[in-house]
Specification:
single chain, about 350 residues, Rossmann fold, 8-stranded mixed beta sheet, 6-stranded parallel beta sheet, 13 helices, about 35% helix
């Protein structure tokens, strides 16, 4: 049997897809499995033995034309709700072609049968969640496990997978033991948070009495200078390789981040996470893209950037960091119970 899997979007989303990929392998252990990635998210699959080969979709290639080279495959699964992945899978003409889209993407629902013959509809919709706070959305991991189940992959594997080598660990062995790791992303500096507020947050994190490590990529160089000037971190790490970054997270007692791929790298490394989600569409994001399989606390960025609102955001993050070790010690990793307050603060053990 030959199986084609396709996910060509973001790094974090591909990390959340690794349980579905492992489920396909566990369900079809003798199959030849080909994974199509983008040149950007390919790095997630390095060292992943659940597939036999990883092929990048060239940035200039048309997905439909690219997919034709995989004719003769038995099963093709689009693991992203994107037209590009659906077109690629459709072009294989595999007897069984599976994909998914969102319930209110009506045009995508109409065109999907051109590409796949089994389609799952996701209940995720930001407007519906905002209008109905009681609306429950399954985590993206669980949705993807249901997608591959449509293709007959029912031996479920639920752990996220990012492969870290001893060389990656050696590259960050100089870091302090069990630090708090704060990952900088542009969302710390806009729409309900500011550079000055995040520098103050770093100062308050360090005041907890454990080392603070800050990681960031080159797009945050300008902001990182403010953290360095303030002397709020024990170590600042710029532009680590992807797997060295994961190894740095693996050493952490807790990772603090905004809603970026860092959330899912930390989850894959089995580290507790405090994540600040955007105020808009918090109900959806904090369910579908929450940390998975680890103790975590979700907080909601405020609408405005007045000092009382920013101080409250910092307070919620600090309280979250303090609570995580207690939360982790009281509940197993698959505990689904949550506690939530009126400010949109959520603490739980992710599935």
């Amino acid at each position: 049997m030959k199986i084609l899997l396709s996910r060509t979007d973001r790094i974090g989303d591909l990390i959340l897809t690794t349980p579905a990929i492992a489920t396909v392998r566990a369900s079809f252990p003798s199959a030849h499995i080909t994974m199509i990635t983008s040149q950007y998210n390919h790095v997630v699959m390095n060292g992943n033995t659940d597939v036999d080969e990883v092929i990048d979709l060239p940035s200039e290639a048309k997905p439909g034309g690219f997919g034709k080279q995989f004719r003769g495959y038995d099963i093709a699964i689009a693991l992203a709700p994107r037209t590009a992945d659906l077109q690629l899978v459709g072009a294989t003409r595999a007897p069984l072609r599976v994909g998914y889209t969102y319930v209110r993407r009506y045009i995508a629902r109409l065109t999907a049968p051109l590409y796949v013959n089994k389609l799952m509809l996701s209940e995720a919709d930001p407007d519906l969640c905002d209008r109905d706070p009681s609306r429950t959305v399954r985590h993206e991991v669980d949705q993807l496990l249901d997608v591959v189940a449509l293709a007959g992959a029912r031996t479920r594997v639920t752990g996220l997978r990012v492969t870290v080598s001893d060389e990656d660990r050696a590259a960050v062995a100089h870091l302090p033991e069990r630090p708090i790791v704060l990952h900088l992303g542009q969302r710390w500096f806009e729409e309900g948070s500011t550079l000055e507020n995040t520098v103050e947050l770093a100062r308050e994190l360090r005041a907890l009495g454990v080392p603070l490590v800050i990681t960031y990529a080159h797009e945050c160089d300008e902001q990182a200078r403010a953290f360095a000037a303030a002397g709020v971190a024990d170590v600042m790490l710029r532009d680590l390789s992807f797997h060295q970054w994961a190894a740095a997270f693996e050493r952490a007692r807790c990772v603090v981040t905004v809603d970026t791929g860092a959330t899912h790298v930390a989850s894959a490394m089995r580290r507790p996470v405090v994540v600040a989600f955007e105020h808009r569409h918090f109900r959806l994001s904090s369910q579908e893209w929450a940390p998975y399989g680890v103790p975590y606390v979700s907080v909601r960025k405020p609408i405005g950037e007045d000092e009382p609102a920013l101080a409250e955001l910092r307070s919620e993050i600090i309280a979250g960091v303090r609570s995580l070790e207690t939360l982790a010690s009281r509940a197993p990793r698959d505990d689904k119970n949550t506690h939530r307050d009126d400010n949109g603060v959520e603490g739980r053990i992710g599935r």
